[in-house]
Amino acid sequence: MAKGSDHSLSVSSHAKSKNDAVGAGGQSQRRTAGTVKRLQMYRCSKPRRNAQGKIIKQAPFQSFVESGTRARIEPGRSWFANTKTISQRVLQQYHETMKDRGDQKSSQVILKKTSLPLSMLEEKKISPLGQVPMIRQTNFSRTFGKSATRKRPKLAFQNVSDLLEHVNVVSQRELKAEPNLDMVDCPREYIFAAGQSKRIWNELYKVVDSSDVLIEVIDARDPLGTRSYQIEQYLKKDKPTKQLILLMTKIDLIPPWLTQKWLNLLNEEYPTLAFHGSVRNPFGKGALYSLLRQISKFRNQSNQISVGFIGYPNVGKSSAINALRGKKVCNVAPIAGETKVWQYIKLMKKIYLIDSPGVVHPSGQDSDVAKVLKGVVRVELVGDPTQYIESVLQTVKPEHIKKTYTIPSWSDAEDFLKKLATKSGKLLKGGEPDLVAVSKMVLNDFQRGKLPYFKLPPGCVPPGQGQDAENITTASGMFEVTEAKTDEENIATEADVPTITTNSNDRDNQTPT
């Protein structure tokens, strides 16, 4: 070891146990028992490992048991007996002690309170309301022990014969109240409550309150079936200052002479316009522009007007707004429920449009079949779509079905579905026809206009088969509306509205919405 360098280890002067004494200046320094245990915990808190890192001695808090070792539990009664129990003698002694304790023994206090409900044993004074403590109502001897008594249960019947007689009387009463037990209403599917939720109606009321003019969109194939009469009555009674306009969409799916008939009938109640919601080739756009401008001029006291679109689901509200704007501003889909919340769209400088989700009044006037055919519900969510095919075959003319699916004949709805499944290749394992998939395909074609159908106005007679085609389509002349160009500063588009002339021939070639 080099001279002048001190590499010797410095030994701590502290004691290693509480009995060790260190003579530092002749004074004794002893560690307490707690300090010694704490130091031992620090030293033994880690396991001992060998050079390979394997644990050769576990830490005090560690224990490793070999796999398959059988664990044993001490056979003590404390594992199976009740906890927090006390004998009756100890309870009585505690009760007497607490009762005898008075002012002269006020220095006596309870150091450790038990978790048992001993407060139930304390006698309390009777309250002014006449409530008697439980200990006075029923003592221990009457509740436990040989002299214990219990209340007799109240039984409606004393024997089995009385019970059987009562069941027969109740059954006869139910049979008299419900004579037609052969037909029982099964619970409806949740999808048929579409458009009736509180959230949807709250969205409708927001649109009604925020709009100066309301446009009720109806389907030209069934105008009366897609009208919301409850909303019309509500506007007449509670909102008489709001103007209501009927907009008949999807006129490309019905003949022109039928469109004229419906316009003549509906114009007697409200201003009615025919409309085709197409972004590239709209129809009725100029007439609706002119009507909205006239209403805007009548309301000179306001700087702008808001126009709300309301109606049944899947009637074309969002498509009409896209056609007015000339581009896609609202999400559209050929299924119901695409619009979830209301949407504010700018049309002109002083005219704004409000789109709303479709609503259905929960009055029960529409059956489940009518809701499916009107497109109120989504076909993919219907539980048994095969039961609605018979209504489709009765609504659509057979020649249209034969032309669409090239099926020459069928006996009933099931036979039609089997032939269509075989023709379209929708088969299950073993060559069985997939009737559910084919039924959904037919219902989708019906809702989207691939299967043509329409309803006639009351008292209307369709033209004869031998009548000239030119006479049938003479009513289409009134729909030749030239879209007027508007100022670039008023229209919320970059380009002017194009001038489009729509006639009956072009309308026949348009694709259904």
UniProtKB/TrEMBL annotation:
Residues 201-362 form the CP-type G domain. It comes from the Eukaryota. It is found in: Nucleus, Nucleolus. Keywords: GTP-binding, Nucleotide-binding, Nucleus. One of its GO terms (cellular component) is nucleolus. Its main location: nucleus. GO terms for molecular function: GTP binding. Transmembrane segments: none annotated. Residues 1-35, 489-513 are annotated as: Disordered. Gene3D superfamilies: 1.10.1580.10, P-loop containing nucleotide triphosphate hydrolases. Interacts with LYAR and RPL23A. Interacts with the nuclear importin-beta receptor and, at a lower extent, with importin-alpha. Belongs to the TRAFAC class YlqF/YawG GTPase family. NOG2 subfamily. GTPase that associates with pre-60S ribosomal subunits in the nucleolus and is required for their nuclear export and maturation. May promote cell proliferation possibly by increasing p53/TP53 protein levels, and consequently those of its downstream product CDKN1A/p21, and decreasing RPL23A protein levels. This is Nucleolar GTP-binding protein 2. It comes from Tigriopus californicus.
